[in-house]
Amino acid sequence: CPVEYRELLTATRRTDCLGAPIRVAGRPVGEFWVARNTGRPFSEADEDLAVACGATLARFFRPSWPAAG
Predict the structure, then answer these.
(1) Cα Rg of the chain, angstroms
(2) Are 13 and 39 in contact (CB under 8 A)?
């Protein structure tokens, strides 16, 4: 996690975080983050699921820029 996210995790007593991009037409429009306090690292399957969640969320974004043709 980036330093500022790690500070937020510490302040909220979380031990681990995992993020995935939300992209529309290849452009980043946001991030999907999850955190937990179990002290157990995220697995590769967790990473795959986070990426899938980011892709699913992207379907609901209506970007303000025109679609590139």
Answers:
(1) 14
(2) no
